[in-house]
Amino acid sequence: MTRFFFCLIFLLLAFPLRFHAETRVYVDLMADEIMVDGKRCYPMNVKGWLKNGHWRSNKKRKKRNLDEWELFCGEFTNFYIEKGYLFPLVVEEYSPALDTIHVIKVNCSFEPHVWDQYRKPVEAGYWKWKRKQRFGK
Asked: 27 and 89 in contact (C-beta within 8 Å)?
């Protein structure tokens, strides 16, 4: 009988957690400060998100279109930006309209040779996007 109650308690605790799983968004942040209307903005590229344990990729990125970036003109919590670097981030939620983004972690567990293979096409896509936008010209 006690086994039944322990199983019941476990199911009641575990079952709601499955449906209230957090969404995590994976983004690339290029720490290249761009001033727009007196606000400090940073370019971000959404790679995809993990929702309820299932990966959903950004359809634009699936087509290998790495030069689709958006400007985020808000603040970051739990993160310090060093200018000139590329940061692969995991954030709670992302929208260009948000005022603040909470960073869960920085994905920097790459080996040096793997990091170069990841970084180079992303940075090339960013610079291509920036040339198209002609910021500050």
From this structure: yes
- Name the pTM for this structure: 0.70
Phi-psi region of 27 (alpha: psi -120 to 50; beta: other; left: phi over 0): beta
* Cα separation, 33 vs 24, whole angstroms: 24
Q: What are the pLDDT digits (tens) for 77-130?
A: 988 888 888 888 999 888 888 899 999 988 875 666 677 788 888 888 888 888
CA 1, CA 95: separation in Å to the nearest integer?
A: 50
CB atoms within 10 A of CB 31: 13
Q: 32 and 43 in contact (C-beta within 8 Å)? A: yes
Q: Using the Cα atoms of residue 92, residue 26, residue 22 and residue 70 in order, give the sign of their dihedral.
A: positive
What sections of 55-111 are H helices per DSSP? 59-62
What value does the CA radius of gyration of the chain take, rounded to a whole number of Å?
A: 19
